[in-house]
Amino acid sequence: MDDKIKLILSSVFKISVDSISEETSMSSVKSWDSINQMKLIVALEEEFGVEFEDDQILQLSSFNAIKDIISKF
Amino acid sequence: MKYSEILKENNSLSDKLDGKQYNILVLSNIIVSQIKDVLEYYIRLEGINAFVTLGNYDNIVQDSIKIHDFDLTIVCWELSNLIDGLQYKSNLYSDGETRDLVNKVKAEIDLLFQNSKRASLLAVNKFSSLVFSYPFLDNNNFDFICDELNTYLVKRKNQNTILINIDKVIAKISIEKSIDSRFFYSSKSPYSIEFFKEYSSHIKPIILSANGAVKKALILDCDNTLWKGILGEDGIENLEYTSETPDGTVFEEIQSMVMELSKRGVIIGLCSKNNLDDVNDFFRNNKKLSLKTQNITIKKVNWKDKVSNLREIASELNIGLDSIVFLDDSDFEINLVKENIPEICCIQVPKKLYTYPSIFRNNSSCFFSLSRTEEDAKKLQMYKQQTLRHEQRIKHSSLEDYLESLTINVAFYINEIDLVPRMSQMTQKTNQFNLTTKRYTESDIETFVRDSHYITIAISVRDKYGDSGITGLSILQLDGSTATVDTFLLSCRIIGRNIEFSFFDYVVQYLAANGIETILGSYRKTPKNQQVSNFYNSLNFIEINSLEEVKKYKCSIENYHFKNLNYIGTTNG
Fold this sequence. Notes:
The structure holds 2 protein chains of 2 kinds. Chain A is mainly alpha-helical. Chain A is built from 4 helices and no strands. By secondary structure, chain B is of the alpha/beta class. In chain B, α1 packs across α2, α2 packs across α10 and α5 packs parallel to α6. At the A-B interface, α1 and α2 of A face α1 and α9 of B.
């Protein structure tokens, strides 16, 4: 699951897979803005076959948070 | 394909493609940012280096000033967001409020078209009320406003504008699959990835046409492709191709669609394993056939393999193999061609005959061309004349004797505004005899014609077999006493008659008479224009400063060697 998330983060934000770590978040990635956030949500939902709740969407702002929330499904 | 995969593939394609960038600007009054990767990906798959820039949110009119920096501008004008919540508010409007809104938007439409008059190409989505339509009521005010504004778009659009019917896009995938209600309400982003994929497919032919990638010929098998049955075995009486039978109706529709393509300028040819006489007799004696023999330009009806026949067709018509679409019912033939000539687009007649017409219709988009001119209708005649010239050539011993026997005459048209559509079409379609392969829309050419720093010279060619029409173009850029050849091309119909030398002599003469002393030219290599790689060398231009893909040349007018071909006559158009 980690790898799939990393690949999606890499494709959406145009960053290398290797540069993604536990610290990767909205504040550390320049291209992580609200427009790309939408793309991220669409890509994650499609990949994992889930639909996030509204409050979950607000929390999806770091690599760790994404892992947490998806593992709850 | 998953969205994340499209994102990933698009990223890797952007590194691989090195052709000239095709710049697309997307203006909208909603969030459509997802379109960037999807559209880029779909176009890059075709080998065109598309790059999408998104305009500022809800700044359609303001951003329309930037349009000239782009090859194509797409305008996504969402009806429901003209006013926040218009889809429900409009149904409570008074007549006066409705009128005010409609007039306000009409004024904005005027500004958009005013600002974009000189743009290369504009694709404006028609307004749509479809996703908010009630399933059971008559048209409501929201629908009414939509119709009013669309009528206005049709009335006021410029020549350089194509209106896109997004209802067709939505219809293909369903209203439910087209919308993303969640992101519509939270972020003003109404459309789903599915919608953007279908939209990109839908407008792809426009972009392909602007980049010269349109299919030129449809080559068809006969038995069970144009009619039901096998001519040589079942006999003429047992073939079905009219509405007398259900299957016959299918083939009548197919033949009519082939005729329609022919009228749009697509070359129609037959490639069939039959006796030529049988097929010729059948077409000649049968009035009920919807496909008429005059519309068939080339016939390879024999017992040779179809791969060889198709190669001959490409060579005789002087078109690339990748300009051909091949239609056949046989698994064997389709696979054979696919394996041996992968550049040819193969379509197989489906086993379920009732799906044949819609498959044919859907595939016809590969023939879509932005510019349709009078030359299209005459084209068939010209290709037929070409076959006659081909037969004559074999009879003469030397090229010069043959050319002299043709009594060729070239007419020149300088800065002729009436020829703008045809000149634009030539830049988009000509791939082989094209030194710089620059693609221009009608709007671009009109700018050249009106600008005193440019000269456009078009030629038409006539010989004893007929008139080839406007078949050559040169665009020259002037700067003091220097002229640069921006474009020099000849349609494949007139290649092989040394017309290029006569044309260039005329260009040089014209430039000399207008005070030019130096001419600069360049050759940009593409997969299709190898035959002109040494054109400037043959004119005794000097090669200066060359890179791998671009060779640059220079010649002073006094050093230019006129070929003065006496067997080609010239007149002013």
